[in-house]
Specification:
CATH architecture of the largest domain: Up-down Bundle
Number of strands: 0
Shape: elongated
Strand content: under 5%
Helix content: over 70%
Number of helices: 4
Radius of gyration: 22 Å
Largest sheet: none
CATH superfamily of the largest domain: 23S rRNA-intervening sequence
Length: 131
Amino acid sequence: MLDQIRRSSLSVSNNIAEGFERGTTAELIYFLYIARGSAGETRSMLIFIQRLNPPAHLRQEVAELKDLAESCSRQIRGWTDNLQNSDIPGQRRLTDQTRQLYEARKRRDAFEKHLEQIVRKAPFKNFPTDD
């Protein structure tokens, strides 16, 4: 059982590394899902150990490891969600032109957000908007 926990927990970082090295966002997302599955496998094994009622001196350590596996899973999910909403197809396809377009979009979005904040703080109520 301990060997299986070692393998599944190591699989988390190995799959993240492999996905990152692939070069496209779609491949990275694929490997992040595999990594998340490995984190779930690790958590499952730790829950199983908790149900076996381990010695008192190990209970807290097992609980902390289970919490860590849950945290890893949530972080991987957040990263995956962020990547799925990204308009960059991956570092292999990131050229100078796509990088410039992406940066220009970020600056435009930041400017629009700042402009919105200014309009909201305006001292008059009937300020014309696009709504």
